[in-house]
Amino acid sequence: MSRQNSVPPPTAGLSSDLLLGPVSGTNTFEETVQRLLQTVRLGLIAPGERLPAERDLAAQLGVSRDTLREAIGSLAGAGYLISRRGRYGGTFVSDVLPSPPVVAAETPAGAPHPSITAEEIDDVLTLRDILEVGAARTAAGRVLSPPERELLWSSLVAAADAGADEYRRVDSRLHLYIGELAGSPSLVPLLADVRMRLNELLDAIPLLMPNIAHSNKQHEQIVIAILTGRPAAAAEAMREHLGGTALLLRGFLE
Amino acid sequence: MSRQNSVPPPTAGLSSDLLLGPVSGTNTFEETVQRLLQTVRLGLIAPGERLPAERDLAAQLGVSRDTLREAIGSLAGAGYLISRRGRYGGTFVSDVLPSPPVVAAETPAGAPHPSITAEEIDDVLTLRDILEVGAARTAAGRVLSPPERELLWSSLVAAADAGADEYRRVDSRLHLYIGELAGSPSLVPLLADVRMRLNELLDAIPLLMPNIAHSNKQHEQIVIAILTGRPAAAAEAMREHLGGTALLLRGFLE
DNA sequence: GTGAATGGTGCGGTGTATATACCTTTGAAG
DNA sequence: CTTCAAAGGTATATACACCGCACCATTCAC
């Protein structure tokens, strides 16, 4: 043990045992599960809709059908997916999604929160701020094709029209699509990841209608700023929007 | 079953077969190699310095010693690491790092670029802009401890004093440390990844002294803005700084 | 009833990762 | 000069994740 013994080396002491972190240990299986979960939880495929056939999906994901099936099975067991066989069968997203395992916001006996620490909250909110504000700014700085513009607008409308039950999902989609408009393919999975983490936190607090209304108004400002090509305005609007959620979360959880 | 299928589903056609992308297929072994490579290429451990003992490092990384050794062996073969046995031995970073396999910037026969496409360049630069500008802004918005402030400043000085041979490495460290000051642990690996991708591109173009001098000046502006707590100024300075590199890259490679 | 598309099942092969134990080298301390 | 501790080097056995393939069972349009 004890590392930097002889010389306190000139470069040591900076950060960053980037080393330190445990290597992901990402099973192909677990990663596949996460992918599917994202697809469902972020609303990329709506409740009741069908996934591609197992053989096709496995090919798309670059995974053996066996592994994919294990993943599907595990998610089916959790109530997210339903498989039907036979012609015109397939694997479908549950019509009614299971409410995810809510991490208790209150500690029953004073025990430390199982997985919802203050550091996690800060981490997620900070990262989200960086990613989403940057995405909005970048998207606003690009010239968008007519179909892109229409799709953005319809995503906005969908969010505005959504009921409380589907709001989380539709909202996620809108934010994700803004990220996609930024034009960096690598950005989208990062946004998806941080959004998944955020949703996990949001699941622990109530969803209030006034907040939704407020969010919708902000969404509109963001989208309009993007459509009219004003990066600074888009960034500012997004920052405000995220700030609201951040306040809400910190208020309830910290 | 299935509710809204009558209509060509409202949610389809959006982006994002987030599904589509192939699952990473990340070997523990390859991931370990990447980690070590980052540690060396980004200057987290300087040439000549020692890595933790195999057994310790394996534990830190959450990897079996066997796998770690394979990774070390492969990097030793490539000239990045050197292992010495016996008491006070260990694994060390090569005193002189191998110049990485330069992806030819010119196509010899008109064949398509092996791995350096215009899309990759855009992707990296866009993502970098989002991450680093956001990091600078966030870092400037935090109250920094005295040691943090000193370390930031000394990183700046190190970059200013660096010779052309070590510039890439020291520059990476500075940028990475700014990211660390943003206070989001999850952000750091993302910055490291995008920086690795960027360095791969930079390796394909010459390093000019005037550019270095200019960069140093910009670094100073960024750091000062962070130290004086001016988020907008920090973001703007960082954006300018990155813009320079972006122009350079696009000029040489696109 | 027939055919086609789909999920369900079984099996064997291969490579990767782990765990454990032991050997070898080196240099400082006694 | 001997000893010892700390490091890398080696060997072997085990578990299982992932894959590819072939085949079965179910369902619905026609």
Write down how many β-strands of chain A occur, each being a DSSP E stretch of 2 or more residues: 2
Largest interface: A-B, 77 and 75 residues
Q: What structural class do the secondary elements of chain A suggest?
A: mainly alpha
Read across the widest sheet of chain A, the strand sequence of neighbours is 1-2
* Residue fraction in strands of chain A: under 5%
CATH homologous superfamily identity of the largest domain in chain A: GntR ligand-binding domain-like
Average pLDDT score of chain A = 87
CATH-scheme architecture of the largest domain in chain A: Up-down Bundle
Radius of gyration based on Cα positions of chain A? 21 Å
Count of helical regions of chain A: 9
Order of helices and strands of chain A: HHHEEHHHHHH
Oligomeric form of this entry?
A: homodimer
Alpha carbon gap, first and last residue of chain A: 36 Å
Quote the CATH topology of the largest domain in chain A.
Four Helix Bundle (Hemerythrin (Met), subunit A)
Give the domain tally of chain A: 2
Task: Please describe the biggest sheet of chain A, giving its number of strands, its sense, and whether it closes into a barrel.
Answer: 2 strands, antiparallel
- Poorly predicted spans of chain A: 1-13
